[in-house]
Amino acid sequence: MASYVSVRQEFVHRLDEVRDAVLTLGSMVDKAVDRSVDALRSRDLGLAKKVVRDDQLINRQRYDIEQSALLLMATQQPMASDLRFLASVLHIVTDLERMGDHARSIGRLTIKLGDEPPLKPLVDIPKMATLCHDRLRGALDALVARDPELAERIAEQDAETDRLQDAVYTELLGIMTTDPSSVTRATYLLWVAHNLERVGDHITNICERVIFAVTGHMEELNVERGDSVSAGTAR
């Protein structure tokens, strides 16, 4: 019969495999978001179509991770922090997969725009994408390091995403008011900004789950620190 130590080592190894698979999924999503905005900026319809097509790979990776995590939960009966980690993984991969959906939506909007002339040089939308890129990497770093303080700092940066979205909305609404022929193109860009804002929200969700996995404390992290809502502490 295998010793407790060897069984534990095997379990830890499988936990590490799940974590690495989550990081792979995060990298896939990160690239999808970056490429979707690159395709929009350069009007690269081929790249936009690739983002749409590759969303199936993101979905498959999510389902594979879920299957692995559920199998460990069912067969190994993990306790305490290990169980919280696996439960958090199930939520994190859902958020990552939905971020991939938003990248796919941006790709589809780029295809809809086709060869229509741009309204203006893109400024704030690429800034939103860069911020999402940096925040996602920070959230995944917090997961690996099991660092709730880092996760909280990353969550707080969502306020900047919201500010940039507001700037996009204000500018595009002004353009539509003065130039009715721009309405369709401006509306598509409004939807792009909305998709990026939602990506930022999902990153905040990941940060919440990182904090729960480490501390057992679940709270909704909002833009304002004082608005955080406690959801209880796991025992």
Give a quick set of tags describing it:
single chain; 235 residues; mainly alpha; two-stranded antiparallel sheet; 81% helix
Q: Could you please describe the fold and organization of this structure?
A:
The protein has helices spanning 4-42, 45-76, 80-113, 124-145, 148-156, 158-178, 183-215; strands at 217-220, 229-233. Helix 1 packs parallel to helix 3. It is mainly alpha-helical and 235 residues long. It contains 7 helices and 2 strands. Mean pLDDT is 91; it is low at 225-235. It has a two-stranded antiparallel ribbon.
Secondary structure elements and their pairing?
Elements: H1 4-42, H2 45-76, H3 80-113, H4 124-145, H5 148-156, H6 158-178, H7 183-215, E1 217-220, E2 229-233
Antiparallel strand pairs: 1-2
* CA-CA gap between termini: 32 Å
Number of domain units: 1
Order of helices and strands: HHHHHHHEE
Provide the gyration radius in Å.
20 Å
CATH architecture: Up-down Bundle
- How many β strands by DSSP? 2
What CATH calls the topology is: Methane Monooxygenase Hydroxylase, Chain G, domain 1
Structural class computed from helices and strand pairing = mainly alpha
Q: Oligomerization state of this entry?
A: single chain
Going across the major beta sheet, what is the strand order?
A: 1-2
The CATH first-level class comes to Mainly Alpha
Percentage of β-strand residues? under 5%
- Apparent shape: elongated
Number of helices: 7
What is the name of the CATH superfamily? Phosphate transport system protein phou homolog 2, domain 2
- How confident is the prediction overall: mean pLDDT? 91
Low-confidence stretches: 225-235
**Major pleated sheet:** 2 strands, antiparallel
Can you give the helix content as a percent range? over 70%
